[in-house]
């Protein structure tokens, strides 16, 4: 019998039997034993498992599996899982799982079998280097540092092997590469490899060139672009820009390209240089001219001619030889073909033969002749002569001398042995004059005029006149008119250019009368006149006067004096018995102005008893008639006054101008009644000599009546002396410190009276 209900032991598989009875509580009787059979079933075997390896971050991982039935899964800590777990590959390392199985129908669970999952670390991404190619450059397959490389394009598509970049277009191409380690086969992260294809620089701007065979100073080739590289016709790179050779005619080919800052050679531009043949020199002939002959442009056979002077300088146009000087002038000419190539220069000789000197004609005598006379004209020596009259050739006049009997302009030309003619000689005018008719004198106006005037005499002949006075030739008087300014008998004769004289004209008697003396105007009055006033003007000439105002004759004003009563410019002229009038006299300018008298003083307000001065003034001359008040001014006609002012005063002055106009002026003068009155309110009668007394101060004081009282009303001081002072005593006794009141009646010299009350502090 067991002490209590037993606990079965399951350490071994098998069957264990137990028995149990019961007892009633009242009787204590035990029942029959009932059998209880405990069967300990044997456990199933643990499931069969296989450890697994995964790569870090591997995708599409399946749940774990094991060989068994009714599997139960646990994590590394033994925690029951809801089902078969799916390993996580986010971190490299080892993960343990456990699994058991249960048999039916007993449901006994087997031992747990371990399943180890290893997450393998990935290898490092391969090392790559980005590449740069020039556009169209031949490229090599890409490489990277690593093992078992796998290549991908920019879209992540796996490639069959290492790619070779295509450089046909400029831009950027991305590739990716990874590596796999053995034996795990885990693939690394993909490394980027960037391939940059640089755009080629544009083809330089070039121009084909043309040169002439043998041309000198050919410069190196030029193209528009930066960092240029040059190639010969076969594409061979040159070290610098080539200088074409012009030694052989033909065509040269060169290529040029730009090189970018990355060193890419751009598209090539082709330059074609043509070396052209040069034409033959033009055929020329010698040219001759006479000196000063009109020359034309030089002419030769050729195309696109170029002309040069003797110094070899190119001329802008076909030259025209200068024939102003004799001698030989050399010119050079070349021709150019359609290629612009210039031929050798041909020399043209231009010879200018000297012309004979300009002939000089001499006359055997005067060329101004009277009718019936002749003159012989003779040319300077030469080989040939031809005479002309008035520009027309004289037929048969081919000798050195020519006899002339007709009026005309005569010239001659000559020729030398070279056949060159001279220029025309200077012409000689030959004038055959007829004898003139007797002239007549006509006078313009009267033959009797005043001094300073002239009688104009006119001859009936327009030319050749010579005037005489009293049978004496007047030098220079050869015009048709003559102005006679001196009395006398005048005649005229007419001379032709040949010196042929007419008969003398009939005489004309001219009388020139003297003019009066210029009068002088005097006046006793001012040039300024008052309105309504007059000024008497006197001429220095006693008779024959005529007065003018502003240049206009004053009707009836013919006396030696003139009384002017208005403004203006006055002059006078005199006239003698011959009716001759003098020049204007001096000018008297009368100006009319209102007569005003001014009365001035230094101040209109002055102190009482001060001396004051009054002064008068006016723009016009004047006299003082009277002053008022008359009792103050003794000299009634004085222009200035001085007096002592004792009261306010109104002064009036009356005056008359030199022209008889009246005026008066008035001024008001006031006495300044400012009163300087002061009585101190404190004094210290202590005998120190400072402020020991008190007194009344002021100006223009005539008298005072001063009384001082103590504070109790006792009169202790009284005085009517305006210069007196109180010393602080009463009946010889010094008064105590305190306040004393006063009354002071002050009378000033102008009679005004002021009463002043106040207090005085006596202090010691």
TrEMBL record:
Listed SUPFAM superfamilies: Immunoglobulin
Domain Ig-like span(s) in chain numbering: 344-429
Highest taxon, organism lineage: Bacteria
Protein name (record): Ig-like domain-containing protein
Species name: Pedobacter mendelii
Highest classification ranks of the organism: Bacteria, Pseudomonadati, Bacteroidota, Sphingobacteriia, Sphingobacteriales
């Amino acid at each position: 019998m067991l002490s209590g209900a037993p606990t079965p032991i399951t350490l071994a598989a098998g069957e264990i039997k137990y028995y149990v009875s019961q007892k009633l509580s009242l009787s204590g009787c035990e029942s029959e034993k009932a059998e209880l059979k405990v069967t300990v079933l044997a456990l199933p075997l643990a499931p069969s498992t296989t450890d697994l390896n995964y790569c870090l971050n591997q995708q599409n991982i399946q749940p774990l599996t094991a060989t068994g039935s009714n599997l139960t899964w646990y994590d590394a800590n033994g925690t029951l899982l809801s089902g078969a777990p799916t390993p996580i590959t986010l971190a490299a390392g080892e993960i343990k799982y456990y699994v058991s199985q249960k048999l039916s129908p007993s449901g006994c669970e087997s031992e747990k079998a371990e399943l180890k999952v290893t997450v393998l670390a990935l290898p490092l991404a391969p090392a790559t280097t980005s590449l740069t190619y020039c556009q169209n450059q031949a490229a090599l397959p890409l490489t990277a540092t690593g093992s078992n490389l796998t290549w991908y394009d920019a879209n992540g598509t796996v490639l069959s092997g290492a790619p070779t970049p295509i450089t046909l277009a400029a831009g950027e191409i991305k590739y990716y590469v990874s590596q796999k380690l053995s034996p795990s086969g885990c693939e690394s992260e993909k490394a980027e490899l960037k391939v940059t294809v640089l755009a080629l620089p544009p083809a330089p701007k070039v121009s084909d060139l043309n040169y002439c065979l043998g041309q000198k100073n050919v410069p190196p080739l030029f193209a528009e672009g930066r960092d240029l590289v040059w190639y010969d016709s076969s594409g061979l790179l040159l070290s610098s820009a080539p200088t074409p050779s012009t030694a052989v005619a033909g065509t040269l080919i060169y290529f040029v390209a730009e090189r970018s800052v990355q060193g890419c050679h751009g598209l090539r531009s082709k330059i074609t240089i043509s070396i052209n043949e040069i034409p033959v020199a033009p055929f020329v002939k010698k040219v001759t001219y006479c000196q000063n002959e009109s020359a034309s442009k030089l002419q030769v056979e050729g195309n696109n001619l170029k002309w040069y002077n003797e110094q070899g300088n190119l001329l802008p146009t076909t030259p025209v030889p200068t024939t102003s000087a004799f001698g030989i002038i050399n010119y050079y000419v070349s021709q150019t073909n359609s290629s612009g190539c210039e031929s050798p220069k041909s020399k043209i000789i231009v010879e200018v033969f000297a012309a004979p000197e300009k002939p000089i004609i001499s006359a055997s005598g005067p060329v101004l002749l009277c009718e019936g006379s002749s003159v012989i004209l003779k040319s300077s020596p030469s080989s040939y002569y031809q005479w002309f009259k008035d520009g027309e050739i004289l037929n048969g006049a081919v000798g050195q001398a020519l006899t002339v009997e007709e009026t005309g302009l005569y010239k001659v030309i000559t020729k030398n042995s070279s056949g060159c003619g001279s220029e025309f000689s200077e012409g000689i005018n030959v004038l055959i004059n007829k004898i003139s008719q007797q002239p007549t004198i006509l006078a313009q106006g009267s033959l009797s005029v005043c001094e300073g005037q002239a009688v104009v005499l006119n001859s009936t002949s327009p030319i050749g006149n010579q005037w005489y006075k009293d049978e004496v030739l007047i030098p220079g008087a050869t015009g048709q008119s003559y102005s006679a300014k001196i009395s006398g008998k005048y005649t005229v004769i007419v001379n032709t250019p040949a010196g042929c004289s007419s008969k003398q004209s009939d005489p004309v008697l001219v009388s020139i009368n003297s003019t009066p003396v210029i009068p002088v105007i005097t006046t006793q009055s001012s040039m300024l006149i008052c309105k309504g006033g007059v000024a008497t003007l006197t001429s220095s000439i006693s008779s024959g006067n005529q007065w003018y105002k502003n240049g206009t004759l004053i009707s009836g004003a013919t006396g030696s004096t003139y009384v002017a009563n208005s403004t203006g410019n006055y002059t006078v002229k005199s006239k003698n018995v011959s009716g001759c009038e003098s020049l204007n006299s001096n000018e008297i300018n009368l100006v009319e102005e209102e007569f005003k008298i001014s009365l001035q003083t230094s101040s209109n307000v002055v102190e009482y008893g001060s001396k004051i001065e009054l002064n008068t003034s006016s723009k016009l001359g004047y006299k003082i008639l009277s002053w008022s008040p008359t009792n103050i001014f003794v000299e009634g006609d004085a222009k200035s006054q001085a007096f002592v002012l004792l009261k306010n005063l109104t002064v009036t002055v009356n005056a008359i101008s030199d022209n008889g106009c009246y005026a008066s002026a008035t001024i008001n003068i006031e006495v300044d009644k400012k009163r300087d009155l002061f009585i101190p309110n404190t004094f210290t009668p202590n005998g120190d000599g400072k402020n020991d007394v008190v007194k009344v101060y002021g100006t223009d004081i005539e008298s005072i009546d001063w009384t001082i009282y103590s504070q109790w009303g006792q009169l202790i001081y009284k005085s009517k002396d305006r210069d007196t002072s109180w010393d602080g005593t009463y009946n010889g006794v010094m008064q105590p410190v305190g306040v004393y009141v006063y009354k002071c009646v002050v009378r000033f010299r102008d009679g005004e009276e002021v009463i002043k009350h106040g207090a005085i502090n006596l202090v010691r």
